[in-house]
Amino acid sequence: MSSIGWSTSTRASTRNVWKFARRFITSSPSRFAILIFAALILLFTALFSLPIASADRTVTPLSDALFTAVSTICVTGLATVDMATHWSPFGHVLVFLGVNIGGMGVLTLASVLGLVISKKLGLRAKLLAAGDSNPLRAHGGVVNEGQTVRLGEVGQLLTTVALSLIVIEVVVAALLYPGLLMAGIPPLAALWEAPYYAAMSFTNTGFTPNAGGVTEFADDYFVLTVLMVSVFLGSIGFPVIYTLLKHVWHVKRWSLHSKLTLITTAILFVAGAVVFLLLEYDNPKTFGSMDAVDTTFQAFFLSAMTRSGGFSVVEIGDLNGSSLVAGAMLMFVGGGSASTAGGIKVTTLAVLAIAVWSEARGRQSVEAFGRRIPSDVQRVALSVVAWGATIVALSTIVIAQITKAPIADVLFDVISAFGTVGLSTGLTAELPESASYVMALTIFMGRVGTVTLAAAVAATTRTQLYSLPVERPIVG
After folding, report:
1. Structural domain for 355, as ranges
2. pTM of the predicted model, to two decimals?
3. Does the residue 315 lie in any domain?
């Protein structure tokens, strides 16, 4: 009888735990998403600390293990250790698995886990998943059916996320393998490096399995082009991939989000290349020693990688100060929403640019491609920029005070951390332990998203049933 009573008590306790988990997921999905990412970081920190994870079979210091875990799960690419030589094969496998898990996105991952626990994707879980494709879904207010992804399509979106991640990485690896062989990489080594590069490019991480990095392929346009295409696909976002798969030849049926993402991405890609070309063409340490064709190609490659890719053929520390500023601006913008890229996102920039243009023309509403962008989306965009700028400013001040390093180098690496880009002037690898923790926190806040972070802080959503008298302060 006692064993029966103990078994009944155990089942009751298990049911209570599952009920609590389901209530936690549905009542505060944003907090649950952040909790999942934090738990993954702690798990990978413990794994990276194991002696088997390091090449010399010693315990990796906590600060380095934690920073690597954050950079891996948040698909950033910054490192405080030499990623190619410090880790053992087991450690490299951890990095490979971590970036693919993190590449799925914090909200998408939380939705999948929530689906497993609750057995079905309920309304709030669908709102959570759709929130990754459209920040307004995680924001109060009415949402019409013309948004990026309808609630009924969320299940298909989650399937698209998983399938696109696997299929694109397999195709990219298959394309890279012969390129690596022609570059002189041994067949067995290329068999590992090809999927590794595929994962690091599509997730926009930028880690390399070899000490020389992509500089070994500086003259190999094929390999570098495949990496650029893979970075582009990862940076446009899963909702855009989802739209292209459904309506690839029907541009009129593309969502407004997809149009803004693709157009803004193309503009920034070309504009960034032109800027780098103008600023670096006479720099002997970077483009000055190249011919016209190499200079043009490398300018486009650098433009793509500063958006979020993280690979670099030239030494970032050798760039002119003006180029570092231009690169920092591109990194701050980042890629598309619900993508493996970071930053404030290209749609945020597009919405604000359209709003400014509409205000300059004296229009009452903000419109694009025959659609009106509601004011609450504009407020979210403005909030994202404000939160992002605040995080970057505070981190820059703290790290500059700790390291006493040149402010330009600190600002570049901090924005690279916030935008989860992975490019560095060399500062991150030399950070003292206290500064590395600050940088890791910056990466985490940049990856989980400022909107998600703000939503998690808010305990409840209150509806205001009255309005106060209007008074207009002087602005500008």
Report:
1. 20-139+152-455
2. 0.85
3. yes
In a domain, 5, yes or no: no
**Tens-level pLDDT at each residue, the chain (476 residues):** 455 555 666 666 677 766 766 665 555 556 677 788 889 999 999 999 999 999 999 999 999 999 999 999 999 999 999 998 999 999 999 999 999 988 876 556 655 555 555 545 555 555 555 554 444 443 444 444 344 445 455 566 666 677 878 899 999 999 999 999 988 889 998 999 999 999 999 999 989 988 788 888 888 899 999 999 999 998 988 778 878 888 877 888 888 888 999 999 999 999 999 999 999 988 999 998 888 899 999 999 999 999 888 899 999 989 999 999 999 999 999 988 878 888 999 999 999 999 999 888 888 888 888 888 888 788 888 888 998 999 999 999 999 999 999 999 999 999 999 999 999 999 999 999 999 999 999 999 988 876 565 555 544 445 566 777 877 788 76
> How many domains is the chain built from?
1
User: Does residue 74 belong to any structural domain of this protein?
Assistant: yes
Neighbours of 97 (CB within 10 A): 14
Any domain includes 13:
no
User: Which secondary-structure segment (H or E) carries 409?
Assistant: helix 407-418
Question: Hey, is 117 helix, strand or coil?
Answer: helix
Sequence-distant (6+) residues with CB within 8 A of 241 are 160, 164, 233
DSSP code per residue over 212-238 = TGGGGGTT-HHHHHHHHHHHHHHHH-H
